[in-house]
Write a structure and sequence with these properties.
This protein has 501 residues and is mainly α. The chain contains 28 helices and no strands. Helix content is 68%, strand content 0%.
Length: 501
């Protein structure tokens, strides 16, 4: 039944994790690992299925104890940093290996994780299999949250009415979840109706209710109503957190009310408490950048560095994003180099932000050098990196450099390696016009690797051969090998190339 505070979707901190190399060496040598258990889990990074169980089993083999209260805390931490697969694997291990009994709260958390990792049908199946006493306000609430997150309006509404019948709907969380769903679907009048229902049920609105209502009023272009919502909440003694003023500032900024936005940001900063961590400051940097206030961005960055013993990847990312908005290339370079020399865990998102900045300023050479250096450090580009370079090079007409990045797309993991279908005809047209058979063949090899090779691509390849005055004896067989039907147009082109039947 987890939900995030705020009007939008706040970024969770991607806490820098220590390198797992030490753990590997210790395991290989059979020696006792001196690190605490959670530190070992956090060091797994993006390790796949089975990695959590391996860490836990090794911990037991070392003769160490595991307490339920500690494991529940580790699950909470892993969820906080959106490491849902590992959090679920830890919960599964707790049940299947340790035989721990699940509390109602744990059932709700597990249901939420199952949805995030395995999908809505798996979550429904888990809920259906729960014993009747475990089907209470927590697990119903968790399932409702799943429906709302997946925008299943009918199922969410039906479940909410069922909760109504059972007398477990009269609390803030389920109503907030349904309001969030209507907000996402753009049904802002339904948000207001639910708020009226909330009042009738005498359910006290909270900070999130306020954020949702303000966002819906703003979507209806009712800025006066936004201010009225906040005023009403304040007068009724509602406890409003920093995210209410973050939402307000964002609304003002979008409406071009810069002074009001900055006033809301000052109020936001005054409400930040120690337990809020770094997240409010990340929002402050982003929002001050949105209103064009570089000096405040730098001031908040100084507060982050003075307040916290370690600056996380997420805070570096927020700062770089803010500077990108303000187009302060020199200070961006300084912050990025600081991160490069201090980070414990490499994060491709930060290098991508710097890449975007270089390309935005026409510095493609510097962007390429950035990745050469990153590769030397053992880092690897992702689909976003490829997209950035492809869009830049295609936009400047440098299709040869763009082709290099299409080839890089083929090196990505299978699920990530995709090419925008709209880009394909542009490459094909370029190679035809340039009579570049070699380039066309390279491009077709990429399409083949990405599962995109089709009749249209072969027609273009054949036209490129004809334009260049070249022939190939293997093209007909290649088309057959790729299981492409030799249609009339392809047959005609093959005949012109001298590849008759």
């Amino acid at each position: 039944e987890e939900h995030e505070e705020g009007g939008g979707t706040p970024r969770q901190e991607a806490e820098a994790a220590p390198d797992a190399e030490g753990a590997k060496k210790a395991a290989a040598a059979g020696t006792k690992d001196s690190r605490p258990l959670y530190r070992r889990l956090s060091a797994l990074g993006n390790a796949g299925e089975g990695s959590v169980s391996a860490v836990m089993n090794k911990w037991l083999r070392e003769g160490r104890e595991t307490r339920s209260v500690d494991l529940e805390r580790y699950v909470k931490e892993l969820r906080k940093y959106k490491r849902h697969s590992q959090a679920l694997e830890l919960m599964d291990w707790m049940v299947h290996t340790k035989g721990m009994n699940m509390s109602y709260t744990n059932h709700a958390i597990r249901l939420d994780l199952i949805y995030k990792v395995r999908g809505i049908e798996a979550a429904e199946k888990y809920f259906d299999g729960l014993p009747d006493p475990a089907k209470n306000h927590r697990t119903y609430g968790a399932l409702l949250n799943c429906y709302c997150s997946s925008k299943k309006e009918e199922k969410a509404t039906d479940l909410y009415r069922k909760m109504d019948e059972l007398g477990i709907s009269s609390s803030t969380l389920p109503i907030n979840n349904l309001m969030s769903l209507y907000m996402k679907l753009g049904q802002h009048k339904k948000v207001c109706s639910l708020f009226e229902e909330m009042k009738e049920k005498n359910v006290k609105p909270d900070n999130l209710t306020c954020c949702i209502l303000m966002t819906s009023c703003a979507a209806l272009n009712k800025i006066d109503d936004v201010e009225q919502v906040l005023k009403e909440m304040e007068e009724k003694g509602g406890v409003l957190g920093w995210s209410a003023y973050s939402t307000l500032a964002s609304i003002y900024q979008s409406a071009g009310l810069v002074e009001k936005a900055e006033s809301a940001l000052k109020k936001l900063e005054g409400l930040v408490q120690d337990r809020d961590g770094r997240q409010p400051f990340d929002f402050l940097m982003s929002l001050y950048a949105s209103v064009g206030n570089l000096s405040e961005v730098k001031r908040v960055w100084g507060v982050v560095k003075d307040t916290f013993p370690k600056v996380t990847n997420t805070s570096y990312f927020s700062m770089l994003q803010a500077l990108l908005k303000l187009n302060d290339a020199d200070y961006m370079k300084q912050v990025f180099e600081e991160w490069e020399s201090n980070h414990e865990c490499y994060d491709v998102k930060l290098t991508n932000v710097m890449t975007r900045a270089h390309l935005k300023n026409g510095m493609a050479k510097e962007a390429e050098q950035l990745w050469e250096k990153a590769k030397e450090m053992g880092a690897c580009f992702d689909s976003k990196t490829c997209e950035l370079f492809l869009d830049h090079y295609m936009g400047t007409g440098d299709m040869k450099s763009a082709l290099n990045w299409v080839e890089n797309v083929t090196k990505l993991p299978k699920k990530a390696g995709k090419l925008d279908p709209d880009k394909i005809p542009k490459f094909s047209k370029y190679f035809e016009e340039q009579k570049d058979v070699q380039g066309a063949e390279r491009f077709c090899n990429c399409l083949r690797a990405l599962g995109c090779m089709d009749g249209k691509a072969y027609e273009s390849l054949l036209r490129t051969y004809l334009a260049a005055g070249e022939t190939s004896r293997s093209l007909r067989q290649q088309i057959k090998d790729d299981k492409i039907e030799i249609c009339y147009d392809i047959g005609k082109l093959l005949k012109r190339l001298g590849e008759g039947r």
